[in-house]
Amino acid sequence: MRILVATDAWRPQVNGVVRTYERLEAELRDLGAEMELLSPAEFRTVPCPTYPEISLALPGFRHVHERIAALRPDAIHIATEGPVGWMTRRWCRRHGVPFTTSFHTRFPEYLRARFRLPMTWTYAAQRRFHNAGAGLMVASSSMADELRARGFKRLMPWTRGVDTELFRPRPARVFGEAPVFLYAGRVAVEKNLEAFLRLDLPGRKVVVGAGPMLQDLSARYPDVHFTGKQTGETLATSYASADVFVFPSLTDTFGIVLLEAMASGVPVAAFPVTGPIDNVVDGVTGALDEDLRKACLEALELDRTRVRDHARQFTWEAAARLFLDNIEDALFAAQGRLAPARSLRLARRPRSA
């Protein structure tokens, strides 16, 4: 099966969406499926307001048409609700071709935090975008419940995985021996980082990552160690050097960094919200509490071996198989609503035992 994934998030961006599709591409190949990409790299772009490192594609509908015609994919999956996603959605609607989508980002909450834009407006746009598809993949059950209550339809579960060979316990203490409380991710307003930075904690606070608030926060919190962007072995070593992974976000839909920390044997301290409540076992792999300082101190006492063992259940192979099954279920269900000549070529794959 050849699958075209249309996404506005791709390299050189570093975020959970990019990491998801990077790993999905490799896993699908091992399962005998081929993933092709339609990304901003194929279009003229402009910098995203307040996120200049993110490139937004300018309209190029002819290119979308030519690309899809040349690829003749068996399925189309739209990963993001940006310009590339909307252009691909328009092509699919115009040609009567079913497609699936995924919900990765709480744009309504982000836009409210940055521009005070009412969430009802943005959720209405997202609902219109996704409900036109044959299936909407959602990473967590709590996020699915919320979207269902907001009128989103045809929801399908799609969890994530973690590379337990890269992210593993290591005899490393690159930030010193005192208790190290670490955050990894984008340094941006929607991550609620100051809820962590303001805490009175023993030891040291470390922030790994880049983003539009990096310069401001590093100036206002000189006692915090800001490393900037990290990837690969350097990032994995930073995780393993921490005693607690602090996740102050209130708006993430899943939180791949939670799995990366736990795979490194590092317990999580977080608020009891979507993402943490779906992936962290309170009192075993982390501490969830409305009092983040209390959660941090409780997480210090947890057994790192049990934290690591829990993370092993999240495999990228299982995530890739679920992605394929979702696409098949959604698109075959849509066939009854389409004339045969206007359907994509779908080769039914035997399900795994």
Overview of the structural elements:
By secondary structure, this protein is an alpha/beta fold. It contains 14 helices and 14 strands. The radius of gyration is 21 Å and the shape is globular.
**Unreliable sequence segments:** 338-353
Q: Give the overall form.
A: globular
The description of the largest β-sheet is:
6 strands, parallel
Number of strands: 14
From the alpha carbons, calculate the radius of gyration and give it in angstroms: 21 Å
Distance between the termini: 19 Å
Helical content band: 25-40%
Quickly count the domains.
2
Oligomeric form: single chain
Spatial ordering of strands, largest sheet: 2-1-5-6-7-8
How much is the average pLDDT?
92
Classify the fold: give the CATH topology of the largest domain: Rossmann fold
CATH architecture of the largest domain: 3-Layer(aba) Sandwich
* CATH level-4 homologous superfamily of the largest domain: Glycogen Phosphorylase B
Portion of residues in beta strands equals 15-25%
Assign the structural class, choosing from mainly alpha, mainly beta, alpha/beta, alpha+beta, or little secondary structure.
Answer: alpha/beta
Short description:
This protein has helices at 16-30, 61-71, 83-95, 107-115, 119-131, 141-149, 194-197, 214-220, 232-240, 256-263, 276-279, 292-299, 304-311, 316-335; strands spanning 2-6, 34-38, 45-48, 51-57, 75-78, 100-103, 135-138, 155-157, 180-184, 204-208, 225-228, 244-247, 268-270, 286-288.
